[in-house]
Amino acid sequence: MKYVDEYRNRDLARTLADAIRREARAERSYHIMEFCGGHTHAIFRYGVQGLMPGNVKYVHGPGCPVCVLPVRRLDDAVEIAEHHDVILCTYGDMMRVPGTKQRSLIRAKAEGADIRMVYSTLDALKIARDNPERQVVFFAIGFETTTPPTAVAIKQAKAEGLQNFSVFCNHVLTPAAIAHILGSPDVQETGAVQIDGFLGPSHVSSVIGSRPYEAAARLYRKPVVIAGFEPLDVMQSTLMVIRQINEGRHDVENEYTRVVTRDGNTKAQSLVNDVLEMRDSFEWRGLGSVPDSALKIRDAYQFFDAEKRFEISQKQSREVKSCECPAILRGVKRPSDCKLFGTVCTPENPMGACMVSSEGACAAYWTYARHQTIAEAKAKREQKPEAVA
Amino acid sequence: MCLAIPARVTALEDGDMAVVALEGIKKRISVALLEDVAVDDFVLVHVGYALHKVSPEEAERTLAMMAEAGVLQEELAEIAEGQA
Ligand code: SF4
Predict the structure, then answer these.
(1) Which of A25-34, A71-80, A375-384 has the least mean pLDDT?
(2) Do A116 and A243 fall into the same domain?
(3) A97 C-alpha to center of ligand 1: Å?
(4) Domain range for residue A87?
(5) Are A343 and A322 in contact (CB under 8 A)?
(6) Strand arrangement of the beta sheet that strand A252-254 belongs to
(7) Among residues A274, A297, A319, which one ends one of the domains?
(8) Which of A242, A323, A384, A385 has its CA 20 to 30 A from that of B78?
(9) Domains in chain A, number
(10) CB neighbours of A27 closer than 8 A, spacing ≥ 6?
(11) How many Cα neighbours within 13 Å face the side chain of A131?
(12) Domain presence at residue A333
């Protein structure tokens, strides 16, 4: 286990922490957004924030695929499952996310809808083959890591002539979200969020490469460092961001060269490109409507598009009241700003997606800093008594 | 959900499929997203698809890290649930 020891070496962590302390200039602060929920968890689990000097702060980003899906699309999925007598297949993370009036897929299932949790699109295809008399819909969500498997499944369904399989496509794009956050009024005008640099996602970047971040880094003059998800990767990447800031650079650098290249997995990219194309815009929870930020199924494969196969009604969708997920996903608030945290909202009884998904910020605070967060939330409530009423 | 877990390819099958060994579990996955996968390669598996090849050292390190963080068991349970 030579390598393992090398990488988990506590001395190395200390050395990196010292280097960061030396590099970070006392007269300024460094707010670094970790885009990806996986990084948020690494930062908490290993106490990385605690190793940083006071002027280096992590800001949690929207990189939690379940969290950014707007309630409307979840409501649509529930409607497809309930009104069209289909078998709806979905990744497990999606099941407990509350939709409008707290209706989740799991609740719809309990009330009789045929909703099945799958590990892979391969499982969804198998369910379609095994049930030729039923319509099978795969509820596809996720960033660029999870998109190629959806594209392959659609291609496969076409090759096999599977008549009863379709996909409700909700795949979203990371670089578009980063550009949107940097260009948002929160960052540019009101200063509600300070972002001086980004830690870029690891597995997403293994697919798309580091190149797609270059435009936003240049335009908004913010450094991006693609970071592996081990704690030492996060620390090393943090040091790289701080160095860039100090040197006035805003490049895309790659700390995770063990897996990520500039061009990424070109085979996966071309499969995706073959089957899916850009939507003009897509609604994100928290970020609102973001141009060129999501994918839909190309006309050549429209037979497999659940949005075309099933009529979906226009309806009013609503977030659970008082859930601060939208502001948390923008980096404007933290879970301790939510008055429901730990009182009404817990992992057993989640009020928002950020508490459901293991990648959500509220779930991270719950797992690693529950008591402190509840205490802080309580203190905030008592400062503002009107907020409790 | 964005996690990818390293596994060793033990056999290649028709239709871009392969069998991988993962902590004693044998699992059929798709290798449609990769070029030239060979038996004994280590790959990162995400939702039933090999996303990337990695070195044996990187695979070992990642597995140890996931085990330590307590996410390895969760991932394995999810993978075992898959039907394909
Ligand atoms: S604690 Fe619950 S209600 Fe509050 S923001 Fe997080 S998910 Fe929403």
Answers:
(1) A375-384
(2) yes
(3) 11
(4) 1-319
(5) no
(6) A56-63, A30-36, A197-200, A224-226, A252-254
(7) A319
(8) A323
(9) 2
(10) none
(11) 18
(12) yes
Does residue A389 lie within any of the structural domains? no
> pTM here?
0.92
> Of A52, A29, A5, A389, whose CA–CA distance to A191 is shortest?
A29
pLDDT per position as a tens digit, B14-64: 999 999 998 778 999 999 999 999 999 999 999 999 999 999 988 888 888
Q: Do A37 and A150 share a structural domain?
A: yes
pLDDT tens digit string along A44-73? Answer: 888 899 899 999 999 999 989 999 999 999
pLDDT (mean) for B61-73: 74
Q: B1 by DSSP, 3-state: which?
A: coil
Amino acid letter for position A241: V
Around ligand 1, the residues with Cβ closer than 6 Å are: A 323-325, 328, 335, 338, 340-341, 345, 351-352, 354-355, 362
A188: its two tokens: 């540019």
End position of a domain, from candidates A301, A319, A337: A319
Residue A388 lies in a domain: no
The correct CATH number of B5-83 out of 3.75.10.10, 2.60.40.10, 2.30.30.140, 3.10.310.10 is: 2.30.30.140
Which ligand 1 atom sits closest to the C-alpha of A342? 1
Residues facing residue A276 across a β-bridge = A297
Same domain for A375 and A248: no
